[in-house]
Every structure is written in C-alpha cells, then in structure tokens.
From TrEMBL:
Biological processes per GO annotation: base-excision repair, AP site formation
Enzyme class: lyase
Family note: Belongs to the Nth/MutY family.
Occurrences of domain HhH-GPD (ranges): 44-192
Source taxon at top rank: Archaea
NCBIfam families: nth
Protein name (database record): Endonuclease III
Entries under InterPro entries matching the protein: DNA_glycosylase, Endonuclease3_FeS-loop_motif, HhH-GPD_domain, HhH_base_excis_C, HhH_motif, Nth
Amino acid sequence: MGTPLDTRTAQAEEVLDRLYEEYPDTTISLTYSNRLELLIAVMLSAQCTDERVNKVTAELFAKYDSAEDYADADQEELAEDINSITYYNNKAKYIRSACADILEKHDGEVPDTMSELTELAGVGRKTANVVLQHGHDIVEGIVVDTHVQRLSRRLGLTEEEYPEKIETDLMPVVPETDWQQFTHLFISHGRAVCDARNPDCDACALEDICPSSKLDHDVDLASGDEW
C-alpha cells in the first residue's frame, strides 16, 4: 500500500490509466464560445474558481464582444464588471492591455504561438498553454495549475516546487498524447478526492501507489508537512 512504481514513467502511465477510468469525460470547465473569451476566462481564473469565473463571464461576454471593446473599456467600469473576481483591478488592467496589443499587433485575433501569447499582459505559460490547447488545438506542454502542482508532487512524479519547473520535469515522463488530458484528470481528481487540506485517501483509486497516502505515510509530499 502507498508504494509507487519503480520509475516515474511507469508511475505516470499507471496514474493516467486509473484516472481515465475514474473520469472518462473530464474536460475544461470554463465557459467560452471563441478564442478571445477563452483567453479572458483563463486570465480571470488565476487564483479564482472556474465556477465563479463562469458566473462573471456570463454577463461580461454579453457586454463586451471584441478585443476593441475591452481595449476601449473604461478601467473602473471593467473592474466593476469583474469585482467578484480575485485581483479584479489588476486583471482589468491586464485584459485592457492584452486586448490593445491583440488589436495593434495581431489584427484583432488571439495569437497562436507561445511566445506571442506570453508577451501579452497578464499571460504566463499556464494561460498560454490553455489557450493554445483549447483555442488553437496546439499542445506544446502541460498546464500546471494548483491541482497538478499538488498531485504530481504527492504522487512522486516530481520533486520540483514551481509550475514551470514542474512542467519541464513532467513532459519527458508523461506521454505527449496525454499532456492535455493529464491536467483535466488531475483537476478532476483534485476536486473530487485529493484536495489540499484533507484528501480522502480511503476513497482514492491511487492510494496503493501514492507515496503520500495518509494510510501508510506520515508526510504530504506536496507540502513537506506531516499529516
């Protein structure tokens, strides 16, 4: 019990096999209808729940239709439109700036390369990966959100602490064909079973191969703290 497989590659493949069985229909939970809406939804989702973002964007996307609409928006008004989102003032600034650049440098279209996306205000590699994968069907890496960060460490798939280093460490271990679903599977499992504070190890399909299992181990490898 609680014993990982001999190699990280074997561990990753076994974890994926089991999670595909547990969550066969998992996918992105943000609501959007085009690439610009996707970009804005992902920008808003940083340190905020997708459920909250979807509630806000239901009205936001009805009010603002194009990159020009956002770029020309009044800062205070846009901030007020998203004021239930964490860091709404900063995110309003980022959205306006990013959309101004989309207009000026990309003819009003959301760019389709990692370098161009990460040049936009408020867009890091995680956001860019999501937009590439779900907006352009381009998979260049693994989206490392808080669930992927936590579970990949708990399961012994990486010892890295920061998202970009975790992504770099996971890419040779996780089959490239699974990079996109890897994130969705980990998010689903993180929400359903393996939460941050009190994972339900008794109900976990991965318990017997998890080196952080509370049933067999004293330390949460995600945080380094004792259970």
